[in-house]
Amino acid sequence: MLRIVGLLAALGSPLSRADQQQPYQDADDFFLADAPAVLTATRLKQPLASAPAAVTVIDKAMIKASGTKEIVELFRLVPGMQVGYRRGHLAAATYHGMSDELARGMQVLVDGHSIYNASFGGVTWDDYPLLIEDIERIEVIRGPNSATYGPNSFLGVINIITTDTAHDQGGKASFRAGSNDYYRGMGRYGGSWRDLSYRLSFLHQQDDGLEGLYDARRVDALSSRFDYRLTDRDVLQYNFGYSEDKSNVGDKGDPADPGRSAQANLLSQSFRWTHLKSADEQLVLRLTHIRREKDERFESLGMPIDNLTLTERLDFELQHVFQPFDQARMMWGVGSRLDRTRLPLWLGDGDDKSNVLYRVFGNIEWTFLDDFILNLGALLEKNAYTDIDVSPKIALNYLWSDQHSFRVMLSRASRMPTIGEQNLDVQKTVHSIIPVRVRTERTLKPVEVISVEAGHHGQFFDHTLTTDIKLAHQRFRRLTQFVLPNASEPVLEYTSANVANSLNAELQLDYQPNQQTLLHMGYSWINIDHDDGSHIDYAASAPHHTANILASYRFTEGWQTSVAYYYRGAMQYLRTPAPIGAFQRLDLIVQKSFKLADKQTLNLAVVHQNNLGSNDEFLEGEQLSDETFVEVSYRFE
């Protein structure tokens, strides 16, 4: 498999070049409407005002202004999202709570392919081989979208779109150092040869983690993208990434958990063929392969533990976009996925467990009476554990004027239990991980959410100010929980039965009166209630209030200053021992660019993060500290 895909990579992958006039359009530009536009809501290119969902777009300007180098940190800019680091570097990013550190309800895509973990769900943000410098934009769907991207798009969808290699030529190198022995070095080069363009990026990063914890880590990663123009109508894209992550986990003050070391190797590759049949019709074929191995050896209460795990995914998808009749566009597709995992500690043996899934999906967008847009979509999925699951969605947008649009949406979404959840059988308890025996006694049913949403999208002051207001109600069914069958048998059973209701309101504001000024603001209020008989406090899993502000201004002679403020109310992640207090942070960023010569630039940046007295990140009392970073970068074209 690797040799075949590697040969395809050597042949290249197609992409439109800026200096050539060709009839081809990149898949992300297909059906391009007036900016600002998004692709993720329905897989059809749509203006934000016509999208049937609440969307947050994080572009290159916001990424630079934020001063962050961790991709997961960018999601603090999304209303209603929570970001936390368990044990210092195990990042979790979820929307509206309802999550532990794995954030199983969030679907994450990179250039359209899913990087969702096959074993227990979520995304391993700490070692996925993707550099923040390679990102063009991120589109975040704030709400369920299983009708478009499958059952694991339960709470929201994150679509990370990397920069077209034809528009990212030349080299760049940077080095950042700061608090807690943090070091980050990056090198990148983009070039072209005939109809092939490419980008190679390398990263080395290390830090000591949080104070008082045994949580240092070191990551080395390679990320690459190749684009090859096969014909005027055909483009091939190949993404390849590899990372090695060495990390420590433990509590220096807990003799029962003295710490353990682990090494993880992750290989990710994806292939995409795009064929433009006509101006109104397009075919896209995607193949994805992700493999992660982790070797973890340690002692707990004097007992040696050898935990060598494997997670692997092979995914195929074919998508067809066309115009069935005037004023209508349609997208449909089919896909299949093989998930395989080996988790000896968690599943009771060293045998491989697998799951095969099949899916069919579609969406039609119909514009009628000039001002109304109707979106109908659905996805059907069948896997080895459950019956056919259907996720439908209906949405209506009313374009009241060029400046104002309203939307209503009704959908059903689900989250399929992972291989690890379905086969959970912890026979050898480990004090530092799970101190009691746990098993899944019966086949778990998909978790379900019924969502009703209303929203308004507005543009003011000659389109320099954009606002988005969202009101939503959600009803969750079959939420997973641990139960104790009887007092004489200390074995927890993993099952699904709970019901919860959520009511939330959000406001997002973006203001860019000129090329020098950027202002982004977000606020979210959420309230969750659930059955009193639950053993898990879902109501506390989401903070009542979250807020973010990012303001940036570019002065003359290369100076740029930014201020960012993040607030998250008190909450408690699922399956953690105690609630954590409110978190707030104030970031100050100063950057200066120097023009060294023609097409050569040197950039200096200082970033200071002040936690404003906050003590809790993911678990209670994790001793957060203020941090300062200095970065120097050099770029040539």
UniProtKB/TrEMBL annotation:
InterPro entries the record matches? Beta-barrel_TonB, Beta-barrel_TonB_sf, Plug_dom, Plug_dom_sf, TonB-dep_rcpt-like
What is its membrane topology? Multi-pass membrane protein
Q: Which residues form the TonB-dependent receptor-like beta-barrel domain?
A: 179-606
Q: Does the keyword S-adenosyl-L-methionine apply?
A: no
One GO molecular-function entry: siderophore uptake transmembrane transporter activity
Sequence ranges assigned to domain TonB-dependent receptor plug in this UniProt record: 48-157
Q: Which domain of life is it from?
A: Bacteria
What does UniProt give as the signal peptide span? none
Quote the subcellular location field of this record. Cell outer membrane
Q: Name one GO cellular component term.
A: cell outer membrane
Q: What is one process in the GO biological process aspect for this record?
A: siderophore transmembrane transport
Q: Which UniProt keywords apply?
A: Cell outer membrane, Membrane, Receptor, TonB box, Transmembrane, Transmembrane beta strand, Transport
Name the PROSITE patterns for this protein.
TONB_DEPENDENT_REC_3
UniProt similarity note: Belongs to the TonB-dependent receptor family.
UniProt-recorded name of the protein? TonB-dependent receptor
